[in-house]
Design a protein that fits this description.
The protein is an alpha+beta fold. It folds into two domains: 242 residues, 3-Layer(aba) Sandwich (Aminopeptidase); 88 residues, Peptidase M42, domain 2 (Elongation Factor Tu (Ef-tu), domain 3, Beta Barrel), CATH 2.40.30.40. Helices cover 25% and strands 27% of the residues. It has eight helices and 17 strands. α4 crosses α8. The chain starts with a helix and ends in a 12-residue tail after the last helix. The model has no long low-confidence stretch (mean pLDDT 96).
Amino acid sequence: MESKDFLARLIDIPGVSGYEMEVAHEVSNVFKEYCDDVRIDDFYNVYGRKTGGDLEDRPKIMLAAHIDEIGLMVKDIDEKGFIKFTTIGGVDQRILLSQEVIVYGKEPLFGVIGAKPPHLQQPGERGQSVKIEDMTIDLGLSAEEVKELVKVGDIITFKSPLVSMKNGFVNGKSIDDRAGVAVMLEAMKELNRLHFNADVYFVATVQEEVGVRGGTISTYSVNPDIGIAIDVTHGDTPDSSKEDTHAMNKGPSIAIGPNLHPKLTKRLMDIAKEYGLEYQIEVAPGPTGTDARVMQIVREGIPTVLVEIPLRYMHTTVETLNMDNVKKAGRIIALFIASMEEGWQKWLSY
C-alpha cells in the first residue's frame, strides 16, 4: 500500500484521544499485511511484530507513533438543539469558528461551528476573538431530534480529508501523528527488502495528546532494548523563527538532547549519511512532547531515538506535510535497524 493512500484512509477515521477503537482496527488490518503477528491491547494500542535473522541475541526494537487525534466532546445541548462543547487535547480555539465537524452520536452527524455574526455584535464585541463558550455546533436539526441522537460525552471530530498539493505536499487533519504511522509502514516495506537481525515491534500508540499514556503502556509491555519514537515537528512558516522550525524539503529531523540516547542518535545520523539520505537536527533540550518522553524512562530505562517529520500548522485542520519526508524517514529507520548486527550492544554502552 502507498503511504499516501494509507494516510488518507487513517485521517478519515475518528480517533480522538481515548476513543481510538475504529482507527486501531484499520491500522491492525494494514499491519497484518507486513508483520508476522498483530495484536490490539485493552487500550487500543496496536502492536505489529516483524522478526528477522537468526542471531540468538538479536535486539528487540520498538517503533512508536501515535494514532490519536485532538478533537471535541459534547458538553451540553441547549433548548434549541445547539451543542455546547469542550476540547480533548491541545485544540487552538482560534481555528474553531466556521469549522465543519462530525458529531458521533447514535449515528455520525454533520455540523458546523457557529457564533453570533458581526452584524449582530455590540460595538465592544467587534474585534475580539470569540470564546469557545460562546460557540455552538449547529446540526440543522430540531432540539428533539438532537437530543434523541446526541448525548453529553459524545465525541466530535473535524471534517477535513487529505488534500493533495503540489510537489508531494498534502494537508488535512490529524496528520499529527498518523503520518508517523505511515512512516512505520514505509519502514516495514523497506525491511522486506533488507536483511536484518532484530525483533521489531511497530506500535501505534494511543492517548499521546493527553499525556503520552499509550506510549507508557506499550513500552512497558514490549520492554524493548531500543526505542524509536516517530512524530512530527514544526515546519517552516513566514511567521515563525528559523531556530524553532525545519525546512519542508530537506528530509526528516533527528532530535538530540537529554531525552535521547547520544550514541544511538549518532548511529542513526551516521546511517543516514552513509546512504546519502538528507536529515535535519532538532535541538530538544528538555523532555520532548512525544512518546520518546516516556519510552526513555519505562522500567529500567530504554535507550531511545526520535525521528520527526516537519509539519506546518500543527493542531489545525490544514496540517501540511511533504510525503517525501515520510518515505525518507522510513528508509533511514529501516537501514538503522538493519545495521544492528552481532555486537549491537556496543551502540548502547558509553
